[in-house]
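Appendix B, example 12.
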Amino acid sequence: MTFQFTLTSRRIIGLLGALNIVLVVALLFSAVGPALAKGGTPPDPVPPSVGTDVPLSYFGPMPSEVQKELVGPVKLLRAGDFDQAAGTVTLPLYRGQMKDGRAVWYILTDTDDRANADALGLNFSGKLSYAAVDGGARVARLQKDNSLTFESGTVDFSPVRELVPGDAPTPFPPKTAKPGSVGDKDYTPIVRIENSGNHIYNAPVVAFGVEAKDITFCDGNVDYGRVHDRVVKICPGANGGGTVTLKTTPIFSFAKPAFYISTDASDPVPATLDEGTLAPALANIKVGSDDSAFSAIERLFVTVNGPVGKDNPQRQGLFSALTDKTDKGTPAPPLHVIGGIPTVSLDYSPLWDLNLGEWTKEAIDKGYRSRVIDEFQYLELVQQGSITGPGGKKFGSTGIIVNCPIIFRAR
């Protein structure tokens, strides 16, 4: 395990004291909390007709249907078909190749090409332009048949994912964390198309070195020795004509519940925890600079020792994810906090700089520990000393990058 802790600076904005925010959050999310505590998805918004004599038909659409920045659900990755009840997203499946002809099956989620983002329904991320430095992005060339030929970067999907929590009462860090897919030293999901505008795309690989017949699992029953561990179904077709369905995970951005897919990480521990691919070359991208000029990343706030308990509406963090189970018997999602996502902020990037926080014993003893769902709420708790880096170290970047494209904003 290669978690490292260094201090990163950013202005701390706190319009309300952290404890006041916690109280407001508890009130606003009293209905959402139980669903997420059990590993479910946020429920649909409560009908505005509740408590009135006016029929529901009187009311208009959710504000987000008129202006996506306003309150209400928003489909962010429009290229995909998001199923909130199932917690999955179905995306076009693309086929490319290495120079030697080996097949590369991948998806597209984000790009720094705004026009093509709009045209293809991808997330726009201007920050991706700054990922192509010192091996942070690999190179591809567009062919006449519209396929991509990749110069480098392979992925082995044959390993079996293995995760063994640490002994109680501290299940994190895990005793064993072996990801189910491992890229070589040159693999990164970030791709620069050198002969077509030099635009950058987020193109995570979901299968490698196999033909369509080897990964045709249109009805499920997927062989994870051949495909990404988040794949639920995969149905190859002509380039861009097939589909792949992947599991999503709930998360919070500025008090708004959202969903993402975690596809890759630069470190084996988060890659294993998130059922992703170990992508060593992501480590070439600079971390710790957040929203400064030419930064490719945004911040991800991961709590080690948040509240636990399957039915606890305040449940959050790695201890919970490693010990609590959903009603379906699957690991409960950790419910992390992230910075800006599309429609909420201007600084979205799918490349998240992992900041690892731990509630102090003093804060726990005083009853401060609760679910945190807003970046500035989190930073306020850091500033006042209730959350530190693990073991009381300074809070900041671990040096780890995770690739988590945003799919859907639920509020």
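Residues 18-44+65-409 form one domain. The chain has one domain: 18-44+65-409.
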